[in-house]
Each structure stands twice: as C-alpha cells, then as structure tokens.
Amino acid sequence: MLMIKIEDFKLVTLADRPIFDKHYAKYPPNHSENVFTTLVSWNHFLQSYFLVYGENLVIMTKPEGQLRIRAPSGPQNIELVKELMQLARDSGTDYLLMLINNEQKKWMSSNIECVNFVQHRDYFDYVYLASDLAELQGKRYLKIRNKINKFNRKYEYEVESLCEQNHDEVMIFLQRWCLWKDCGSDPLLENERDAIMFTIENCFNLNLCGLAIKIDGVIQAVAVFESVCEHTAVIHFEKAMPDYEGIYQIINQEAAKLLASKHKFINRQSDMGIEGLRTAKQRYHPHHMIEVQHMVPGCEEIDEKEPEHY
C-alpha cells in the first residue's frame, strides 16, 4: 500500500519560499527548473506542487493536466523513489520520474530493475564560467566582442539596477517587448510574459536581482537573476528590444560583470529545443551542461516519446 498520495502534494505559493530556502540551503537545486522562482512564476502554466518527505523535497507539476513527478531532492532514498514511481504508474503517466541528473541516474539504475533512462537534450542547462561571460577573451568570443564594439560606437547607454523606483518603467518595457513579439499569438510567449510579469511584481519577495539597460533615458533591455548557491547564479529572464543591434550581448556581459564578483558559474537555463536559442547559447561556449533524463519502464515495449514540458 502506498504511503504517498497525490493529495499529499501542496500547490506552490509565494508563502512557501521559506520551506524551499531551508531545504535548498542544504541541498541546492541541481537544475534551473527546480529553482523556487521558476516554479512559482510559471505556476499559471506548470501547476507546481511540492511535498516534504523527511529530508527530501519532491516536486510535481501538471502542465496541461499531464502529471509529472520529478526526481526527489535531498539524500538518496531508494524507497521514496520506488513510492514515487508507483504513484506515477497508478496515475497513468508513461514517465515514472523526470529531471533526473547523471548522479541520480547512477544510483537509481544500480538499485532499480526494469527501468530505462531517456535523455532530454532540450532541457539540458547551459552553465558558463562567469569570468568568461564578463571578460569575453580570446578568439572564440571575437564575433561577440565585435557586436559589442559596434554597439558602443553607435549608442551611449547606462546600466541601472532593478528596484522599486523603476518598476513602472520595467513593466512598460515588457509591454512594448510583448507587442513586438506578438505574445498573444504564441502560447509559449504568452506564458513567458505572465511569468516575467510575476517576477517583476514580486522581485523583492523572491530576493531577485536585475539590471536594465537605458538608451536616451528609456529602458531597452532587462535581465533578472538570482543566486541559487554559493558558486552559481541563474539567469531567469533576459529581454531586449530589436532596434539596437548588439544589445543582447551588452545586457549579457553587464549581468555577468556583476555576477562574476560573487559567483564562479552562471546557469543560463536550457534552450527548450528552439534552434535559434540553442545556437545563441552555444556561441557563448558553456563550461558544462547539466544533463537530465526521464525514467520510463524498461522490461516491456514502450513508446519513448519525449515530454514537451516538465
């Protein structure tokens, strides 16, 4: 008889941040999708739930009504893993556990029979040396430096921290950006818009930091980020208007300059399988990738299709 039920999971809200902070202080999130800010800001789409089970934290999502249980965070607990696998089976999902990193895969595969692990490249996190992104040294960054130099010859800009004083300006910028991107015509962009708006509205409750790039006194680019552990920061959002060639390279470098003083690594999340985004992320030469896979039954014939969302 299962000890864990779907009803035991609680919907993630802003008020739950202290629970996540306490757990992640000991067991930092191993993937950007598990960061509290990501869960709560995308809650309108992901429907994020959590369960504290002893020293473990379990995250469950229901994007578009599809149950997704993630690998538990915390100490190795094979009995908990088996409980979650059975819960997934009883719920009718083909995927037993999601967002399993390589270390978790190793100990799970040595303790559980009849399972397979299917890599999900679209959700590999890109992790960079902060100093690389801040300094952009060497031939491999030549094209990026050229874009920055061209931008600097054409425009004068100022860097401004995100704070209460410019909140309204940031919201106006995001509205302009969404009009340009036609967010309403693309479900992904529409959901991203809602997530960004949430983070800006709750910037201080989530302990986020950010930068804005101003040209002629008007915000033209914004980056939002946070520290997730002693050595790593994650970039949640980075948006810019298309009128200024090189502005994405500028906001990227300015954020890295700030973060490099306290962090060795910058996690710039995954590319979600978007070709242009993948090319752009590879162009910055990641130090390493955080590989993830999902667990599926392995002793019977299965359809190993990849899930669209976690």
Q: Can you summarize this structure?
A:
The chain has 310 residues and is α+β, with helices and mostly antiparallel strands. The protein contains eleven helices and 14 strands. The chain has two domains: 6-123 and 291-297, Aminopeptidase (3-Layer(aba) Sandwich); 125-290, Aminopeptidase.
Polypeptide structure, described:
- With 310 residues, the protein is an alpha+beta fold.
- It folds into two domains: 6-123 and 291-297, Gcn5-related N-acetyltransferase (GNAT) (Aminopeptidase); 125-290, Aminopeptidase, CATH 3.40.630.30.
- It is built from eleven helices and 14 strands.
- The protein has helices spanning 17-26, 36-41, 43-46, 78-90, 102-109, 130-135, 142-154, 167-181, 187-201, 247-259, 275-283, and strands spanning 10-11, 48-53, 56-61, 68-69, 97-101, 115-119, 125-129, 157-161, 209-215, 218-227, 232-240, 265-267, 288-290, 292-297.
- A hairpin with a 2-residue loop joins strand 9 and strand 10 (218-227).
- The longest helix is centred in the middle third of the chain and has 15 residues, at 167-181.
- Mean pLDDT is 93; it is low at 301-305.
